[in-house]
């Protein structure tokens, strides 16, 4: 077993230090999005759009203008959405319908509904196989749909209550969190087969998941801990503390930062100094209920949805990095 040292130092502000430089994440604006609770957000960098799972629909947001430009209706129990530009199709999970919803990204009209397992939740476009995968939360299965033909190619039995997933493209692997069983399943994408299950002890209840593909490191948001896992051996190498109610993790590959958004109104910021050293370098104060998030690699902005089933004032919070000057030498 390799010895990995996690160096942890907690800052109470949102200031992040990088070799003499600092970056401050500050709330830039609030975008009104009335209509109830949110789940996952997906940034499509090519079209400069973001797809927001929001109650019974998918809201479409212009990333550059920071405003809503449309919605996909009829997605009861919306959990996630993604767009596959190659096939000019969008896909969304409708948890209450037990369906994968197919929509036109131009007109935003639903074109087809494909049955899944019970409780489709997170969604992932797997580039290795050109399939859209629905993580069926209650069924413990994954429905794999060909993005071109819309044919169900396979149903993968994983076990447990499935949450978010991430693809390691160069390895042809997909990783999926099992929330109640406390493991990450490693899946061979082409074989549609579970290769192994990475135990996350002492971390429990993994939800959000992000990957550093270059170094093969996974970041799984758990109950008040971030499980950092080496995919080479499946070992938990660090467990820095985060807030309560984490439901999403995103990764900034340029700055080597993982952001774990939590429902208690905080987002922990973890720096991957190198594949063997991780530091908590900040805590962003967001808003209570802002448990999921998205990261725009172009602007490095963070987006946090805030709202509940009974909240008519739900909104998106936009946090932008603010470069600070280097401190003058004495």
């Amino acid at each position: 077993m390799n010895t990995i040292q996690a160096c942890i130092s907690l800052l109470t502000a949102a200031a992040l230090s990088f070799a003499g430089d600092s970056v401050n994440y500050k709330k830039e604006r609030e975008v009104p999005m009335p209509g109830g609770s949110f789940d996952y957000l997906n940034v499509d960098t090519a079209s400069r759009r973001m797809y927001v799972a929001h109650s019974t629909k998918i809201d479409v947001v212009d990333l550059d203008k920071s405003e809503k430009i449309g919605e996909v209706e009829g997605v009861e129990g919306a959990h996630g959405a993604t767009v596959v530009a190659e096939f000019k199709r969008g896909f969304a999970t409708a948890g209450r319908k037990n369906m994968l919803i197919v929509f036109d990204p131009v007109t935003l009209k639903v074109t087809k509904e494909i049955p899944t397992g019970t409780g489709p939740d997170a969604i992932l476009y797997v580039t290795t196989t050109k399939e859209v995968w629905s993580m069926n939360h209650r069924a413990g299965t994954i429905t794999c749909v060909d993005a071109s033909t819309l044919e169900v190619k396979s149903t993968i039995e994983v076990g447990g209550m499935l949450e978010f997933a991430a693809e390691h493209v160069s390895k042809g692997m997909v990783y999926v969190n099992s929330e109640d069983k406390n493991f990450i399943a490693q899946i061979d994408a082409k074989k549609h087969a579970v290769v192994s299950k990475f135990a996350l002890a002492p971390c429990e209840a993994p939800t959000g998941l992000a990957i550093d593909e270059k170094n093969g490191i996974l970041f799984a948001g758990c109950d008040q801990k971030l499980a950092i896992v080496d995919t080479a051996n499946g070992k938990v190498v660090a467990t820095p503390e985060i807030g309560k109610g984490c439901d999403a993790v995103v990764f900034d590959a340029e700055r080597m930062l993982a952001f774990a958004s939590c429902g208690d109104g905080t987002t922990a910021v973890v720096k991957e100094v190198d594949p063997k050293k991780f530091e908590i370098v900040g805590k962003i104060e967001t808003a209570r209920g802002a448990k999921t998030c998205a990261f725009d690699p172009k602007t490095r902005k963070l987006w946090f949805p805030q709202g509940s089933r009974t909240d008519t004032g739900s909104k998106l919070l936009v946090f932008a990095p603010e470069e600070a000057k280097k401190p003058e030498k004495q």
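The longest strand covers residues 21-32. The domain at 1-32+206-324 is CATH 2.130.10.10 (Methylamine Dehydrogenase; Chain H).
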